[in-house]
Amino acid sequence: MFRGRNEGVLQLSLNADPQFDEPPKESHGEQIIIDHLGLRLNNAPADSWRKGVVSWTWRIKVLMHLETELMGTVRERRRR
Q1: CA–CA gap between residue 49 and residue 8 (Å, rounded)
Q2: Rounded to the nearest 5 degrees, what angle is found at the Cα of 40, between the Cα atoms of 36 and 41?
Q3: Whole-model pTM?
């Protein structure tokens, strides 16, 4: 897997919502962040900005960290 990824043949990524063929409006990870912060996102003027921040936080900060951590764990187990 890692060789294929390094050679550009494979793309490995973590799917946080495997039960859906198409991603839902908010991913499970985004919903966890929304619940944790106690946000109520309706159609208030700032809600679209908040949704964007939650989406960015999930995709760029949390998901990338989880993918990196998972790939590192798999790589370590492979070396044993």
Answers
A1: 35
A2: 115
A3: 0.69
